[in-house]
């Protein structure tokens, strides 16, 4: 399947018609294969985009009119449900976006899309690093019969792409992953080590990254009180304000953030909290990670 469904970020009035005139690209990727617990992330991009039309278009902290950044939303990509060809479809579509040199936000879908989007970004920016916000390490070599599962994202980043990365908000992992962390000398920023009143961990995480950065946000990195609508919620996550402050500091750091993704949104019927909050975070990315 190719591009099929079109819902512009922020509503039709925010859509910049021509890619060349835009500063930001948004690519929704409707993909979910072999989830480990809850389901529904395949439709996550559409729910986030629909909610985005209800956002006020001025950021309350900076007074920036994020709708004037110049956003071009592409029709949703619905890849084949087979992991190997799906990853190539997503990589190719991502590469076309990144080739423009514009900041690109990828909307998942399950976190497995990041395997392909990061690969595309690394092809253009080989010296980049990855900042992962997540409840889980995602360092399994294989899960549910595939090395391209959402639980294997950062293992592919480490072993296949050999990119430097920083993991923050971590509070759930397997014995296999614990061994891998020890053997590789990794230092994830565990959620229980984060003082809610001290943001120094943010500066440490950003400083550990190279000058070019890809940000991957699995929404279960935030606490379920903030984002309950996700497939594998874990208590003890980041607050909304911590997430926003991290974006602010990353944007002010002088690092070049070339792309980001938001994944694992799974709508809960009869409530709009998760998708609206995810859309707010996306708008914050436009404010803090792009030149406005």
UniProtKB/TrEMBL annotation:
For this UniProt record, the keywords arranged alphabetically read as follows:
Hydrolase, Manganese, Metal-binding
Query: Entry cofactor note text?
Result: Binds 2 manganese ions per subunit.
Q: Which GO terms describe its biological process?
A: putrescine biosynthetic process from arginine, via agmatine
The transmembrane residues are none
Q: Which InterPro entries match?
A: Agmatinase-rel (IPR005925), Ureohydrolase (IPR006035), Ureohydrolase_dom_sf (IPR023696), Ureohydrolase_Mn_BS (IPR020855)
Q: What is this protein called?
A: Agmatinase
- List GO molecular-function terms, semicolon-separated: agmatinase activity; metal ion binding
Q: What is its EC number?
A: 3.5.3.11
The record, for SUPFAM superfamilies, names: Arginase/deacetylase
Concerning PANTHER family, the annotation shows:
ARGINASE/AGMATINASE, GUANIDINO ACID HYDROLASE, MITOCHONDRIAL
Pfam families per UniProt: Arginase (PF00491)
Q: Which family does the similarity line name?
A: Belongs to the arginase family. Agmatinase subfamily.
Q: Which cofactor does it need?
A: Mn(2+)
- Residues binding Mn(2+): 111, 134, 136, 138, 218, 220
- PROSITE patterns, sorted: ARGINASE_1, ARGINASE_2
């Amino acid at each position: 399947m190719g591009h099929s469904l079109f819902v512009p970020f922020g509503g039709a009035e925010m859509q910049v018609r021509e890619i060349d005139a835009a500063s930001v690209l948004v690519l929704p990727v409707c993909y979910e294969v072999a989830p480990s617990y809850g389901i529904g992330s395949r439709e996550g991009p559409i729910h986030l985009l629909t909610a985005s039309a209800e956002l006020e278009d001025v950021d309350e902290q900076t007074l920036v009119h994020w709708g004037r950044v110049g956003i071009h939303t592409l029709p949703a990509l619905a890849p084949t449900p087979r992991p190997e060809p799906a990853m190539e479809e997503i990589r190719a579509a991502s590469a076309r976006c990144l080739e423009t040199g514009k900041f690109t936000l990828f909307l998942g879908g399950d976190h497995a899309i990041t395997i392909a989007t990061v690969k595309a970004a690394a092809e253009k920016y080989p010296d980049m690093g990855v900042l992962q916000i997540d409840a889980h390490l995602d360092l399994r070599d294989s899960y549910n019969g595939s090395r391209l599962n959402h639980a294997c994202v950062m293992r592919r980043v480490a072993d296949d792409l050999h990119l430097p990365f920083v993991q923050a908000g971590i509070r759930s992992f397997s014995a296999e992953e614990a061994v891998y962390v020890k053997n590789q000398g990794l230092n994830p920023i565990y959620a229980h080590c984060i003082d809610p009143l001290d943001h120094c961990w943010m500066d440490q995480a950003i400083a550990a990254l190279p000058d070019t950065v890809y940000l991957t946000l699995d929404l279960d990195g935030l606490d379920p009180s903030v984002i309950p609508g996700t497939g594998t919620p874990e208590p003890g996550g980041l607050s909304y304000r911590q997430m926003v402050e991290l974006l602010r500091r990353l944007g002010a750091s002088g690092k070049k953030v070339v792309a980001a993704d938001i994944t694992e949104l799974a709508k809960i019927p009869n409530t709009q909290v998760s998708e609206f909050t995810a859309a707010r975070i996306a708008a914050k990315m436009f404010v803090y990670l792009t030149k406005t």
